[in-house]
Amino acid sequence: MMKNILKRIFYRRINYKELCNNNKSLCLWSAGLQFKDRWKNIQKCHLHEIVYLIREPNNENDTNAIHIKRRNNQSLGYIDRKRAIILAPMIDNGLLDNRATIVGLKCDPKKNIFGVRISLPLDEDTFEKLEDPNQEIEFFFNVNEKNNKYLFLNCSENTLDQIQKTIESANINIERIGVSFSPSSDGKLYSWYIKLGEHVDKRIIENLLENNFNIHKDKEINQEYIELQDEEISELKNRINKLSAEVQKSESTLEKYTRINKTRNEEFDKLIRLTNPKVIFIRDSIEILLNEVKDYSDPIKKVIEYKQDHQKKGKKINTLSNWFEIHYNTGQKDTGRIYFKRDTENFYVLISFKNTQNKDIRFLQKLDLP
Fold this sequence. Notes:
CATH class of the largest domain: Alpha Beta
Radius of gyration: 23 Å
Number of helices: 12
Oligomer: single chain
CATH architecture of the largest domain: 2-Layer Sandwich
Structural class: alpha+beta
């Protein structure tokens, strides 16, 4: 016990955000949640919560056991045995940070099955040993009411890189890639989003993915989220068979979530425009605030500040006439960008990100404004 406590203290000295940024991210579902009512603890978890990997070398069932626990010592199950064989010695020898991040939570409609997905920062060599080359992916192609096209994905970061290369090799324009913070219109919160160009055909994207990657089928979705311990398999398969009968209701559920998502977007749009009538949000700025930024309070606050105080200029963009740039925090990093321009009547604003700066400036150069 004392050894584990000392490890927690030692690992806190390492900048965890830096560790995540500089390493590969391995995502996996915990196992063993059906025992000792561990599933009840998942109801108290939240996305991006830091959890701890606690070694149990004296575990009677598995000497490589790695227990996943919350800060208050609540159990969230175990890392599956196949991966624990590789990770356990690394934790024992101080070669692996014992922190992980919750990146996914799931339950079925009747609350019979729960799952928690964690992300581990790993060096490239370890990542390749643990990454499944035949990993299945889950995706959803979404076109919203403004005809903006998004590809939502559940897959590892490594697979995401491969998907990006596959799409770009087909000469398809990708505008942005990032972590998904908002549910898609099918009601699910996916791990990643890819913002596609406006002329992308859904069938082409689907064919690219189906021809190059292993795709989850709808009725298998409930099966993918727990790396099972042997003793859980039969019990969960029986439950999955029952759940598969509910797939027939999916069309009405999808329609419901589409309506909810559309109403949510429209209400947010109205609220922003009513409270800031002289602010003209251009292109997909409203959509970025609502769907692609974890916390939109910082950019909105800065827009209001700079609109009201004419002494605040920001950084001049040399290639544009009277356009200025300021940074904002996305809720994770200081990688957000706000481009603004004043005239006698209005305050024009483009909300975007650092990694699309060149594209954004080209867009603003073509914009016909006073």
